[in-house]
Amino acid sequence: MAVDYATLKKGGFMRQKQKNHFSLRLRVVGGQVTAGQLAKISEVADKYGHGYVHLTSRQGVEIPFIRLEDIDEVKAALAEGNVSPGVCGPRVRTITACQGSETCPNGCIESEKLAEELDQRYFGKELPHKFKFGITGCQNNCLKAEENDLGIKGGLKVDWKKESCINCGLCAKVCREKAITITDGVIEIDREKCNYCGRCAFGCPTDSFDTIPGYIVSFGGLFGNHISKGEPIIPFIEDHDKLMKVCDATIGFFNEHANPGERFKFTIERVGRQELEKAVREAYNS
Amino acid sequence: MADIEIQFDDTVDITDVVCPVTFVKAKVAIEELDDGQILKVHMNDGEPIKNVPRSLKDEGHQILKISENDDGTYDLFVKKVEE
Ligand code: HEM
Ligand code: SF4
Ligand code: SF4
Ligand code: SF4
Q1: Nearest C-alpha to atom 3 of ligand 1 is from which residue?
Q2: A57 vs A111: CA distance, rounded Å
């Protein structure tokens, strides 16, 4: 049988050094795996692999030592447990995410939900080269947003509510950006300094801040042979649909302009940052 | 809320422990009060003042006042709110 490695790889089967063996990459969204999926993965690793899995640096799960002749059986077995193969190669990769506001006290956005949504929208989409999304719920950046081609960081836009404030001073104390000043009981937020971390609102003992959750997006990060930090282009995005438009525009830009095998950062450098800026701003302002 | 003296029912000193026992000690103290009673929590600057008020609020209690003492410690007044 002729082995089509490209097709195999698309389906998440990574060729190993060992002849006719593959490490099977699984589809994981935002680092969440159900107990049922884990049980099935465990069963398959035991029966078809070497009884272990490898956890990748981007929240993926791989089952090493799957044999070529077992591939169809393995896929069928995994499907029973609602587990599907992941992808490699030139397409949208695993959407990574922290746990976000669902469980984390510092979370500003629902990272997990957003990961599901981006997964539905883009996962596996064919592009000139790999493209990585990462979502982190707040400035603590547990998920390292700027390592990704497109990084999303949650934030809170805060506004002081005078009525319930007991003037304890905690908000100014917990603000690491020194963006809050209190003069005669009146709180002033320096918008130039504020980084939307939300600490003041979370720390306030009387809930004296109105908060609007939103997104800080970074573009062109990569962390492999070359290392580069994704950089912002547009201001804080308060609106979910606007975020989706910005993501669409970014993917569209990459698809249109990138040479095969060229990472987003190098496309931006070659084509010009101002061109990406134009495309992204258009989406942002629409 | 300027400098009104707050009457309190009990007091706990958490300056002798470190995070996370600070919150645990405050929590144990407030558990022993009745609904509506007021606890004074004496704490250090740093992690305790940043985390303990928030944790008490997250548990549903009402923070009435936080005052800074001359020695850099803080007194927090919290009203117990039963669920
Ligand atoms: C009531 C007790 C505690 C509270 C309220 C608390 C709160 C926090 C907060 C808010 C952070 C995020 C810090 C940031 O903004 O970067 C943090 C990080 C962390 N905490 Fe705690 N913590 C507590 C107890 C502990 C204990 C007992 C340990 C270890 C024995 C611990 C270990 C850590 C570590 C390792 C980090 C990560 C630090 C980093 O990545 O920079 N914490 N904690
Ligand atoms: S990035 Fe923020 S929201 Fe996400 S896990 Fe870390 S602290 Fe929590
Ligand atoms: S959101 Fe963060 S940076 Fe902005 S004022 Fe509040 S604590 Fe300071
Ligand atoms: S933390 Fe809340 S109650 Fe305290 S001064 Fe700031 S806004 Fe007012």
Answers
A1: B20
A2: 18
Looking at residue B36, what DSSP letter applies?
T
A:166-185 residues touching chain B, CB 8 A cutoff: 166-170, 173-174
Domain range for B45 is: 13-79
The verdict on pTM exceeding 0.90 is: no
Spell out, as residue ranges, where chain A has pLDDT lower than 50: none
A205 and chain B in contact, CB less than 8 A: yes
Q: Which CATH number fits domain A5-80: 3.40.50.1820, 2.40.50.140, 3.30.70.3340, 3.90.226.10?
A: 3.30.70.3340
Output the six-digit token pair for A181: 């000043």
Can you give the residue ranges of every domain in chain A? 5-80, 100-285
Residue B49 lies in a domain: yes
Which CATH superfamily includes the segment(s) A100-285? Sulfite Reductase Hemoprotein, domain 1 (3.30.413.10)
Quick one: which atom of ligand 1 is closest to the CA of A105? 10
Q: Check: CB of residue B24 under 8 Å from CB of residue B82.
A: no
Q: Which of B2, B54, B64 sits opposite A202 (nearest CB)?
A: B54
Q: Which atom of ligand 2 is least distant from the CA of A100?
A: 3
- The region, left, alpha or beta by phi > 0 then psi within -120 to 50, assigned to residue A59 is left
pLDDT by residue (tens digit) across A97-117? Answer: 999 999 999 999 999 999 999
Closest residue to A170, CB basis, from B2, B58, B66: B66
Residue of B nearest to A170 (CA): B50
